[in-house]
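Morning!

This is the sequence you dropped in the shared folder:
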Amino acid sequence: MNGARFYKEELGNETENYVHHRANLEGKTALQTLSEIKREVILAGENTLDILTRFGNEATVKAWQRWEYGHVCVTSFHSKKC
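The structure's back. Tokens below.
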């Protein structure tokens, strides 16, 4: 789920989505949960880059960075990291 879609669903009072289901299971608000998911996505990206940098080749690292920027930064969370 991307951030924009989440906010659109919030405005429409839609709660049948991953963020709300997880929030209910963990006893948190949807906004707290979205913030945690964002941090988890960023950490997963950093871990992936670290692994590729250590064990991959330069082309693989660059391919990951292009995908990460296009998917995570532009379409999903508009992260301050980007």
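Headline: The chain has one domain: 3-76.

More detail when I'm at my desk.
O.
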